[in-house]
Amino acid sequence: MEIKALIFKLAEKYGRKRENLIPILQGVVQEERYISDEAMVEIARQLDISAAQVYGTCTFYSFLNTKPKGKYIIRVCETIVCDMRGKKEVISTLEDLLKIKIGETTHNKRFSLLKTECLGWCHKGPVMLVNDEVYTELTPEKIRNIIAKYKENIN
Amino acid sequence: MTDTVKIKIDGIEVKLEKNASILDAAKQLNIKIPTLCHHEDLCVAGNCRVCVVEQEGVHNLVPSCSTPALDGMIIHTMTPKVRKARKDLIALLVSEHNTQCTTCYRSKNCELQDLAAEYNIDNEVYLSVLKPSKVDRSSWSIEKDDSKCIRCQRCVRTCAELQHVNALDVAYRGKDMKISTFMDLHMNEVVCVNCGQCIIHCPTGALTERRYYDNIWDAIGDPKKHVIINTAPSVRVALGETLGFPVGTRVTKKMVTALKKIGFDAVLDTDFAADVTILEEGHELLHRLKRVFVDKEKVSLPMITSCSPGWVKFIEHMYPNYLSHLSTCKSPQQMFGALAKTYYAKKKGIDPKDIVSVAGMPCSAKKYEANRPEMKSSGYNDVDAGLTTREIGHMIKETGVDFLSLEETEFDSLMGESSGAGVIFGATGGVMEAALRTVYEVVTGREVPFKNLNITPVRGLKGVKEATIKIENCVPAFSFLEGVELKIAIAHGLINARIVMDQVEKGTSPYHFIEIMACPGGCIGGGGQPIPTNCEIRQKRIDAIYEEDANMPVRKSHEVKEVQELYRDFLKEPLGQKSHHLLHTKYTKRNRY
């Protein structure tokens, strides 16, 4: 769907008040995986607020991406408990499997690799998210299987 | 429920209105609590925490600015715990701050520097965690240096609450949080209107005006250049503040002396151009009214003033379809510039290419205005540089003269005479009052029906003011206005401009003529004025402006001899061909996003 039409639809659905900004932004991320400059301007126009305000909100929340991302966004918990339980190995395994570094996206736009704050699964660390799915008690072996599963989805 | 509460601060009981804060209570008792993010003009933010105090029975310290005073509270403002907390907070702010104070423009006028000194902050407590950043000098008017930002968000609140522009907002989070434009674009690429209200609300040197005084010193040092300056009405009632006079002191003639000592070849008066503006704008209004009432044409009414370059850029961004409502008159600064390099040059026998025309302004947007591409109607840059009141203060300090004891000098002639009507341009409602003094007299042959020419309904700090003036017993040429009730409105601060513009947009505006100034209080509260500026200070500067007006021998623009001479020898008539070329302009539609 064209971005303007999408935002119009979301504004109709959620309303055009300041407090409707976040659901609209989430709606855009769901469809487009990120919020482009163009989208921010269009949202500002629809809500009659300034583009700087939309940008401020987008950059505050780490789940509101402002850069293009892959189809599967992997977020590794970087907080202290997961760190103690092997976060480093999780990251190095993922970097090795996907041939990208933290913060990057694969050439085929399938995977993006990010770090995140606490996901609330400290008792089962280390953990990561792939889009909305949580994976716990990660080991290199487990990670290889998970990534293989997502890679298979290509076909 | 009573409407007052009683609390005890440092052992003294104080009675307060309900909803007052602990900080308000302390102020009432003259107890000083340090603040940084707090500003009287803005909503409470409570983010800097330096105003913390101890409340009996509460474990944590409470911020006094955002804690309401409740009946029976017992507050201590200066315990060891409070002092230690404040000192730590200030030290943490300093650790993130670019502390090269010796090279900072705001040195000795910086709230963080003052607090660091008061609380004896040394750098050994916390290591510096200053992040590298680049100074944004893209705008003609405003310089943004994030290394000096303490993220108090006064600028963000100013841009939102006072101006409703929202060019600046908070971006990112936690340690990465910063004050940012949309997509962190340069200041010249966003909707910023250059009003500079963020500058005068910034506690540090993070937001300052672009400075051009070094170029002026160079020009003054060049014997081939004829360097002239014209000073705006509100500079003379505020400049003293930067040089040791109390707020509201009129320093007009001392300022002239000081500027001569700096080396300007002529010190002239923007008020002269303000008087010319009144003749042009007044006749433009009458011309529009005639086309409506006599020719039955469709003409854009209300007509809106165009003296404030912040307001002009605001309407270009926010209401681009209503530019025809703006008066085509240039602002006094630009009229002055265009006349300086034509009329003045000719009369003085100076080649205009050797004239450097400087404008001393209470404004940062004037710097942008001087650089608008259309402002070259003399064939040169009509205005070579705009300086703020603060920059002029700095230049005077650099000369080392003792401003307080300077003798008094009159403005130079040719473009130095003016009326009280020109002076009051500096206060909100002033352009309207000046215009009415002339227009009413042109139409009826009589003075405005107000005691001592003081049109009090248009004065004061109310956000939107309105008045109606009935026109009766017209001279024959204006008989079409017989019995017309002229409806006028005045708005200052762009949030109030929105109120009257929304009416215009909806087609419900009942007015014929509207004055709009970008800054709260008008030019006396401009973004180039001394810091601090707040409600009390604005009022004192306004009082000084009206005092200056009352003391002028000539109070009406059309009675100024040098203005009459200008029309006789050069322009011929208001709205004439020469005026059209030199004194009127056009506007540009801009994007809101």
Structure description:
With 155 residues, chain A is of the alpha+beta class. Chain A is 48% helix and 12% strand. Chain A folds into two domains: 3-60, Arc Repressor Mutant, subunit A (Orthogonal Bundle), CATH 1.10.10; 72-152, Glutaredoxin. Chain A has seven helices and four strands. In chain A, strands 2-1-3-4 form a four-stranded mixed sheet, with helices on one face. In chain A, helix 1 (3-14) packs antiparallel against helix 2 (21-32), helix 3 (37-47) crosses helix 4 (51-60) and helix 6 (87-98) runs parallel beside helix 7 (140-152). The two termini of chain A are 23 Å apart. In chain A, 31% of the residues are buried. The mean pLDDT of chain A is 94. Chain B is α/β, with parallel strands linked by helices and 593 residues long. Chain B has four domains: 4-78, Ubiquitin-like (UB roll); 104-110 and 121-209, Alpha-Beta Plaits (2-Layer Sandwich); 222-272 and 333-405, Rossmann fold (3-Layer(aba) Sandwich), CATH 3.40.50.1780; 278-330 and 417-533 and 542-583, Fe-only Hydrogenase (Larger Subunit), Chain L, domain 3 (3-Layer(aba) Sandwich), CATH 3.40.950.10. Helix content of chain B is 34%, strand content 13%. In chain B, helix 8 packs across helix 13, helix 9 crosses helix 11 (332-348) and helix 9 (270-293) packs across helix 15 (430-444). The model of chain B has no long low-confidence stretch (mean pLDDT 96). Chain A binds chain B through residues 37, 40-41, 44-45, 49-56, 59-60, and chain B through 165-173, 180-183, 190-191, 592-593.
